[in-house]
């Protein structure tokens, strides 16, 4: 029985590469009988180049087409996206168009249990103090999956004494009034956590950068003092296990289908 795990993600920065290698090493250890392949959506077309992660092309359709058309082949396409948004559904369509009998591993936040697990994993980072706040900043999307983020914000607020706000870099959920609400809370010191798989250009330029339109500059313009958590979610302890559980669930579905 041949097993393949195709990992799909977006972004090809140096930080993203390190995160992919970290996650790939975990999956290789947990699923030693499966071969890891990669499909990375990024303008540069870069992808992991070491270890067992060996993609032949960044287009998922090409990776799928290169697999053996063998009834003894079990294949999982595992999304490394945080929510089931536009990129995830493009992957689903590619699988449906090019290969039958392939199971889809769901993104990080796909079930009620996933939300609670992520809250538990983030809890050690939170100050849990009424005079310290937490701002989480994600990417944002036009896909209806943006509605998952207010749910996460609600659950995080119930897990700590700190003020918690969630914002995005673009699109939805609307973040235009977040800084005003932070300032109105009376809290001046804020921990800023990137709700991103890795800390690439979006973090260093758009969130923590010195430019006048970055979140760092805008927070300071409102009299707020930010401190930045400089690691993405991908290397947070427990995240690789969550993705690994999604892979295992997908493999279990391929067994049920045989």
From TrEMBL:
<dbReference type="Pfam" id="PF06180">
    <property type="entry name" value="CbiK"/>
</dbReference>
<dbReference type="GO" id="GO:0019251">
    <property type="term" value="P:anaerobic cobalamin biosynthetic process"/>
</dbReference>
<protein>
    <submittedName>
        <fullName>Sirohydrochlorin cobaltochelatase</fullName>
    </submittedName>
</protein>
<dbReference type="InterPro" id="IPR010388">
    <property type="entry name" value="Anaerobic_Co-chelatase"/>
</dbReference>
<dbReference type="GO" id="GO:0016852">
    <property type="term" value="F:sirohydrochlorin cobaltochelatase activity"/>
</dbReference>
């Amino acid at each position: 029985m041949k097993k393949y795990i195709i990992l799909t993600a977006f972004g090809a920065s140096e930080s993203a590469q390190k995160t992919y290698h970290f996650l790939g090493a975990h999956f290789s250890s947990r699923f030693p009988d499966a071969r890891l392949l990669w499909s990375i959506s990024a303008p540069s077309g870069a992808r992991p180049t070491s270890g067992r992660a060996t993609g032949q092309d960044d287009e998922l359709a090409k990776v799928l087409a290169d697999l053996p058309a063998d009834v003894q082949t079990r294949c999982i396409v595992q999304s490394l996206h945080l929510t089931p948004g536009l990129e995830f559904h493009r992957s689903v369509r590619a699988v449906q168009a090019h290969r039958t009998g392939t199971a889809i591993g769901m993104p990080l936040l796909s079930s009620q249990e996933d939300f609670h697990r992520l809250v538990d994993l983030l809890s050690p980072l939170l100050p849990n103090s009424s005079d310290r706040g937490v701002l989480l900043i994600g990417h944002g999307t036009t896909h209806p999956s943006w509605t998952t983020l207010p749910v996460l914000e609600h659950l995080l607020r119930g897990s700590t004494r700190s003020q918690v706000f969630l914002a995005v870099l673009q699109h939805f959920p609307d973040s235009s009034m977040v800084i005003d609400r932070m300032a109105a809370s009376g809290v001046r010191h804020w921990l800023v956590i990137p709700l991103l798989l890795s800390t690439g250009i979006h973090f260093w330029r758009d969130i923590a950068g010195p430019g006048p339109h970055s979140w760092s500059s805008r927070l300071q313009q409102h009299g707020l003092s930010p401190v930045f958590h400089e690691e993405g979610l991908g290397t947070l302890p427990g995240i690789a296990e969550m993705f690994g559980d999604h892979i295992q669930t997908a493999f279990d579905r391929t067994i049920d289908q045989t």
